[in-house]
Amino acid sequence: MKKILLALLLGMFLISLVSAEIQTLGTFPQGEEINLIQTCANCTFNNITSVIGSDSQQIIGNFPMTKTGSVYNFTLTSGNTTQLGEYIVNGIGDLDGVDTVWNYNLFVTPNGQNFTTGKAISYIGFIIILLFSFLLTLYGAYKVRWKHLRNDENKIITINDFRYVKVFLFAIAYSELMFLFGLSYKFFREANIEGFPEFFNFIYQLFLNLMYPLIVFLIIVVFVIWINNKKLSKNLNLGLDR
Fold it and tell me: Transmembrane: is it a keyword of this entry (predicted)?
């Protein structure tokens, strides 16, 4: 009984020791090559036995590593690093002539940086500020008067030049809303939250593609306002009724 208990304790110790040796290679950008390395001064070979992606599916398996001194390397191509999340690298080498398995993990993110709590708070803060700014700009654009000032006889007595301001504020509100969708896309993409990045990116790209036609339209609107105001100003100076 004592021998069995001793064996169990020894087994638990060894499992803890092996678990403690699992290390991380680091964090890398999505869609770029990653050099998988292993160091061993007393090995004649090291092989990659498998690389497991974030979806728990095997990406590659059974590839020899290239030796340079005591460093072994295998390059994981960019086509195999498109998934976001944690990868597990498994390998084997003949440490001191004995086949020894090893493994470590690595992480793939959109920009090669870890998505920390501080970064999440920063994103949320900017999103709230941008949302508040958009609503404030939209409210201001709505409140700016569009019609010219008329008297009781419904005749124009003052030309309203604030029409330009109204058009400008609506253009600013459009840009703010576009950047709001773009920032939300970045937040959900870097946080690796499924579903939301695709939605926000679609809306952002839609707004971006419509921006150039909108700019042309706004230029035409401003030009028409300017022409009409010139005509009204001339008529008012001549004392003509409008």
Answer: yes
pLDDT in tens, 38-71: 999 999 999 999 999 989 999 998 999 999 999 9
d(CA 126, CA 187): 10
DSSP calls for 61-106: --EEPEEETTEEEEEEPGGG--S-EEEEEEEEEEETTEEEEEEEEE
Which class does domain 21-109 fall in? mainly beta
Helix residue ranges, H only, the chain: 2-20, 117-143, 163-190, 196-238
Higher pLDDT, 229 or 197: 197
| Strand partners of residue 102 | 91
Q: Is the pLDDT of residue 182 over 60?
A: yes
How far, in Å, are 52, 84, 89 from residue 60 at the CA level?
A: 8, 16, 10
